[in-house]
Amino acid sequence: MPQSSVYRNIGLLEDAGIVHRILGGDEYARYELAEDLTDHHHHHLICSTCGAMEDVTLPSDLERSVDSALRRAARRSRFEGSHHRLDLIGVCARCRS
Known about the structure:
By secondary structure, the chain is of the alpha+beta class. The chain is 39% helix and 24% strand.
């Protein structure tokens, strides 16, 4: 399949809400299935050196606390949030050694 077709189809899938783009510390975007389809809420650890990405699931009490803090921040700014994604960007163990 031509590369232009792949990019066009990824764009269509993103517009349709089937996948979402995850930007890391490099120039490449990664895509994953939308959370609505997987029913798995998670966050990411992203290496700014090699671009490796790891899924991270927070303990439910911490997730509720983060969600509550974000809702309060949104309310103060009169912003209506629908969901959150948190990515921690840094350097992985492999790149540090």
